[in-house]
Each structure stands twice: as C-alpha cells, then as structure tokens.
Design a protein that fits this description.
Blueprint (H helix, E strand, L loop, with lengths): L29 E2 L2 E2 L2 E6 L3 H11 L3 E7 L2 H11 L3 E4 L7 H12 L5 E5 L4 H10 L3 E4 L4 H12 L4 E2 L1 H12 L4 H8 L4 H11 L4 H8 L3 H15 L4 H10 L4
Parallel strand pairs: 3-4, 3-5, 5-6, 6-7, 7-8
Antiparallel strand pairs: 1-2
Helix pairs in contact: 2-3, 4-6, 8-10, 8-11, 9-10
Length: about 250
C-alpha cells in the first residue's frame, strides 16, 4: 500500500476520535440518500502504517479510533464499538488474538478483519479460531481493503486468495491444527520469527540483519527451537515448518 507524502492530521494512537451525533455506535443510518459510512478502528503498532491506511480508506469509511498495542486496542474498541476493527496480528502486550478474546468477552458480535504482513498458516488459523471474520495481507490495495471492510461489516468472511487455502485445509484436516498450536506454544514470538526465516533459507547473518539482533543471538534461538521441537538440524527444522505451512 503506497504511503502518502503527507499524513493527514489524526488522533493519537489509543485515543478514539470523538464521534459526531450521526456516528454514535448503533445500527447503520443514512443522511438523505447517502448511506452512513462504515465505522472503523485501526490497530497497528506502526504509526506510519496507521496513517497510510487512514489516508487510503478515510474518504470511504469513518475512522473512529486507533491503537498501537493490545491493551489500548481493547479499550478503544469497547469504547467506540465500530462496525469493523482492522487488526494487526502481532502487537505489544498480547497480540491480536488477545484483543479478539478480550473484546468478544464483552462484545461477542464485534467484527474483526486481520490486516497483517504475516502470511504464515499459524497466524491465519490462530486469529480465525479466535473469532476474526477475515484475514488479508498488507499488500492489499486501498479499494480492495475498502471492499473487504464492507463485506466483513455485512457478515461475509474475507481472505486473501492464498490464505483462504490455509483455512480450507484446516477444516478439511490437511493441517493438524492441534499439533501446530501445541508445538508453537512452546516457542516465544522471537523464536517463531527466527524459525520462519531459517525455514525460508535465510543464513544466520541474514536473519540477524532482518531482526536487528546479533548472529550469536540467532544461534541461541535456533538451538532453543531445535531443542523445544525435538529436532536435530536445520534441514529437519525446515521440513517441520514446511509440512505445517509456516513458510
């Protein structure tokens, strides 16, 4: 998604936009012959990305709030009750799954559309199991995202083409969801990131550069991953990740 040269003036992350009288939470209304805009909250830990999203969709929807971490996202979503929450999967303070679970405890009908750079099977399956209505990657265009928001608000499930295959495989049994969750639960978030890059063929030096950590730290994480998954070498690790569609 192309970032605009000048980001529009917007509220600080974690502060919901004060809604107008016609934008209070509740059923969709219309002004004259013009339908009311869909109300959206944008949750992502990168301020520039949030600004870019708002610039792309801002004339087609009403952005009523934003947040940069899990705890703030929960508060903002419950305070504004938007039609759709655009939710990043990886967030400080618990991640997208935590946001889904906490919000649905108090607002079971709240609709979420995951919007993430990750296209890994465990991320897709994880947020769908937690209650998201769809999952698209950040390569999506502005018009496509607007359409996805509309469809999710209307009750449809929306997925990027490749990601839809993960969900179908999970339901058909081609992916052992329980096994994926149990094994991955043993790994920290950083270990999962290292695992995915190693499985994609990155050298230790390349992993270190990508994650802004030292080569020694990469080696430590790889050793930990191998131990936790009871694997012997990098080849087995790559095969393990490939079999579970994690790369």
């Amino acid at each position: 998604m192309t970032q605009p040269s000048t980001a529009p003036t917007s509220p600080q992350a974690g502060t919901p936009t004060a809604p107008s009288a016609s934008a209070q939470p509740g059923p969709e209304t219309a002004i004259g012959d013009r339908p009311a805009l869909r109300r959206v909250v944008v949750v992502d830990d990168h301020a520039m990305f949030r600004s870019g999203v708002k610039a792309e969709i801002g004339t087609a929807v009403e952005v009523v709030g934003e947040a940069a971490d899990a705890d703030t996202a929960i508060k903002v979503v419950l305070a504004t009750r938007p039609d759709v929450v655009l939710l990043d999967v990886h967030l400080p303070g618990g991640g997208g799954v935590e946001v889904l679970r906490k919000v649905h405890e108090k607002s079971p009908d709240q609709k979420f559309l995951a919007l993430s750079v990750s296209d890994a099977a465990e991320d897709v399956i994880g947020v769908i199991r937690a209650g998201a209505r769809g999952y698209v990657t950040k390569s999506i265009s502005g018009p496509e995202l607007i359409d996805a928001i509309r469809r999710v608000a209307e009750g449809d499930a929306v997925f990027s083409p490749r990601l839809a295959g993960f969900v179908l495989d999970a339901f058909s049994g081609a992916i052992d969801i329980a096994s994926v969750d149990e094994d991955l639960d043993r790994l920290s978030q950083r270990e999962r990131e290292v695992l995915r890059l190693i499985a994609r063929g990155y050298a230790y030096k390349e992993v270190a550069k990508e994650l802004f950590i030292s080569i020694k730290t990469v080696e430590t994480h790889v050793s930990s991953v191998l131990r936790k998954l009871q694997l012997s070498n990098r080849h087995q690790l790559t095969r393990w990740a490939t079999d579970r569609r994690l790369v």
